[in-house]
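Notes from hallway chat w/ T.B., transcribed later so I don't forget. T.B. wanted the structure written out for a chain they're using in a teaching module, and asked if we could keep both sequence and structure tokens in one place. Agreed to drop them here.
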Amino acid sequence: MRSQVMSVSSVRLFRLALGTLLMLVGTALLVARGIAWLDLEPRMLRALEGGALCALGTALGAVPVLVIRNMPVTVADTLLGFGAGVMLAATAFSLIIPGLDAAQAIGFTPWGAGALVSAGLLAGAFCLFLIDLRVGRASPEALMVQDGQPVVAARVWLFVAAIIAHNIPEGMAIGVSAGGGMPDADSLAMGIALQDVPEGLVIALVLAGAGMHRFKAFLIGAASGLVEPLAALICAWLVNVAQLLLPLGLACAAGAMLLVVTQEIIPESRSNGNHRLASLGLCIGFCLMMVMDTAMS
């Protein structure tokens, strides 16, 4: 009898996950049609499409939480390492190198281009560092419901807030690349979308593991990527305002992403002792993004 109940429950969960997946695909098609109807400048449209692709990657990553509650630690650490490798390669090949080329194209010497990109990189890292400080100092009382009882532990909400904040530089990178007409903007968007899949899953699994309903955890995990198309659109518009903002914007996004990788993702992927698997995932992710960047540029 108990096995029959578990079987029925599993079938229901599978149907829910499949239905949600189909809903996401249908929504993505509708959004794509809606974007096509917008009368946007081509570079702005490219940035919005890239940001929407990343948001879809995050939402797709959150779907499995409807079926499973826990992921094997080894798999989670390997995926985190993979995401770190993708972001490191994107930082180098899609942001820093094009930023140096863009600076020289508007008249900077190689030394001047290096100094400009370095300044932008440090500024981006410092801005994200300030965001991390702000999130880390948030009062747990501010994360409780009205009766004073937390639905989910405050530290879990802080983790979710940090992940959402870290999506901003990814959207910035897409917007700056697309707004500046960079040839590798599409490969950058695809690489970040690929990295966002395990990120969406991690958020949803953390919330579900903390006691939140599966579907609500999925919705929050999926919604965490919505900041990316917004950041992409804003940064694409800013780059069109002034040429100097292109190398600076690329460098700022690179600095923010570099800080995310070194301060959050790599340490987290090694926190459970799976150093070798995390390193292997990092190498695979780096190589995959490098190939995508060179082949699609």
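Follow-up for T.B.: Residues 2-296 form one domain. Might be a good example for the class.
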